Amino acid sequence: xxxxxxxxxxxxxxxxxxxxxxxxxxxxxxxxxxxxxxxxxxxxxxxxxxxxxxxxxxxxxxxxxxxxxxxxxxxxxxxxxxxxxxxxxxxxxxxxxxxxxxxxxxxxxxxxxxxxxxxxxxxxxxxxxxxxxxxxxxxxxxxxxxxxxxxxxxxxxxxxxxxxxxxxxxxxxxxxxxxxxxxxxxxxxxxxxxxxxxxxxxxxxxxxxxxxxxxxxxxxxxxxxxxxxxxxxxxxxxxxxxxxxxxxxxxxxxxxxxxxxxxxxxxxxxxxxxxxxxxxxxxxxxxxxxxxxxxxxxxxxxxxxxxxxxxxxxxxxxxxxxxxxxxxxxxxxxxxxxxxxxxxxxxxxxxxxxxxxx
Length: 358
Prior knowledge:
Blueprint: H1 11-19, H2 23-29, H3 34-41, H4 43-49, E1 56-62, E2 67-71, E3 80-81, E4 91-98, E5 101-107, E6 113-119, E7 124-128, E8 141-151, E9 156-166, E10 177-182, E11 187-193, E12 207-209, E13 212-219, E14 224-231, E15 237-240, E16 258-262, E17 265-270, E18 273-277, E19 286-290, E20 303-307, E21 310-315, E22 318-323, E23 328-334, E24 342-349
Antiparallel strand pairs: 1-2, 1-24, 2-3, 4-5, 5-6, 6-7, 8-9, 9-10, 10-11, 12-13, 13-14, 14-15, 16-17, 17-18, 18-19, 20-21, 21-22, 22-23
Organism: Helianthus annuus
Domain F-box: 3-49
Protein name: F-box domain, galactose oxidase/kelch, beta-propeller, F-box associated interaction
């Protein structure tokens, strides 16, 4: 019996098929052949593949120790320890994510502090070198606020820190030092001082929208709360117009207020409302979304996410799903299958982006 002729699939069709696959299987397909490994690792392939519908995962810690991830949709998934293959440390802290890369700090039992950038999908990881700033004596302590994002102009991922020394919080710090680390250059640079008071606020990561990192800070001697953005392109601060809060007063000064991302747009969440800036930088473009029924559920200090027209409110091990169009909560989901002590810190999307530029 004659053997059938084998069919050779054109390379462009193979590439088109691979572009449509999620990141997880693609990491395994690198072992199929050298050609496939080269194709899947190619920067242009990775950029195109980022447009694929990849799953989002939640970043959590359990009893304030390692970082874990849960897929955002399936129920009762076993948490994956993202840090089990890293050197042993006492504690990991989440500081932001961008295009599948996660920035975290690691603290060991001896008090040593280091930064890491990890792709939880591919398990690639780098340790960020020390920046050069440190505690100057026993009386002064250093606080650091972090941001992490992507600069499309230079095709580079950047870590931004705003550090300041305080004397056991007896007096406000005088200098807010801004440093930028480039993954591509593998180098820290001091880019000057911020004129805003970043100590006036909770230690939350910068919110990345429109190639800009955002924080709520204090301005002037009276500490008026404003939203500022740090552009990763020109590495400067500028104020972003805030919404009109009406009878809510100075919402930005409230502990429960936080900046969020709503469908790639900047948002402000407070109590039962989310304000969304539809056109970046335009004050008049802010619109208000009222979250009906939030007072009937127990949500304490939630993490706010947005996906497919739904606002996701995560508190502990529960995720409450609010349908913006229907103006009601659709369901609540036990995202961790009853695992106790879970605190959601953020999220990331599966990707093939490598933190190893060098």
